[in-house]
Design brief:
The protein has 174 residues and is of the alpha+beta class. Helices cover 19% and strands 30% of the residues. The protein is built from four helices and seven strands, in the order βββββαααββα. The protein is globular.
Length: 174
């Protein structure tokens, strides 16, 4: 290790067995259960895949979006939403693209390449309604899961502005 590189000794420290990264204060990032309400969320990851064999449309293309609550008492909570590419489900993905503010009117009225969709949505900040749902397959003690609503909103919308204000979200903060 170069002598001119500084590390926080509480996180990364040399030991007799070599350098050690201390994860003891970390909590595994997993999907959270948050109360129903409107949340300012950032898209942190997009994963492309195929639907499972027990789905309504086995083997179909799907997009799993990972969202992180960006402000408020549940900041840092992770939620996921799966988007499929059926005619019935496409309006939900359209809502996300429109709410992101990163797509032109021409793109929203036409076709967008998958790579461009991925690039523009990653890091996008939106407001999403979340509802609590009973889930018999949940690993959680309360048997509940949080579900992001079908339609999401722009930070510029009245609902988005209200949610951002209530959560203390500052779009200019790092």
């Amino acid at each position: 290790m170069a002598d001119d590189i500084k590390f926080d000794p509480d996180v990364f420290a040399p030991t007799d067995g070599g350098e050690v990264v201390d994860f003891t204060s970390m909590v595994a990032a997993e999907e959270a259960t948050v109360p129903s309400g409107n949340y300012v969320m950032r898209v942190t990851a997009l994963d492309w895949g195929k639907t499972g064999e027990n789905s309504k449309n086995p083997g179909a293309l799907k997009l799993t979006a990972t969202f992180e609550v960006a402000a408020g008492p549940h900041q840092g909570a992770i939620l996921k939403r799966i988007y499929t590419f059926s005619e019935a489900a496409l309006p939900s993905l359209f809502s996300l693209c429109a709410a992101s503010g990163k797509f032109t009117d021409d793109e929203l009225a036409g076709k967008v390449k998958r790579a461009e969709l991925h690039r523009k949505l990653t890091g996008a900040v939106i407001v999403a309604p979340v509802k609590q749902k009973a889930d018999e397959l949940s690993d959680r003690a309360d048997g509940m899961r949080s579900e992001i609503g079908f339609r999401v909103f722009s930070l510029k919308s009245p609902r988005g502005q209200r949610a951002a204000e209530e959560a203390g979200y500052d779009p200019l903060a790092p």
